[in-house]
Write a structure and sequence with these properties.
This protein is an all-alpha fold. About 35% of the residues lie in helices and about 0% in strands. The protein contains 1 helix and no strands. The longest helix is centred in the N-terminal third of the chain and has 19 residues.
Amino acid sequence: MRTLFIILIIANAIFFAFGQGLFGTARSQLGRTTDLKVQTPLNPEAVKLGPGQFQTR
């Protein structure tokens, strides 16, 4: 029983290391980049604030 427990602990540690990317790029990070390829232009004139939009009580 103790041997089975130790095998499960080792398998869990290996699976955790694989998920964190210890053996290469993690599957959750595939296809992600740190580059911003699409930048939306800022248009401050498009924001219209009028009376009654901000009410405090």
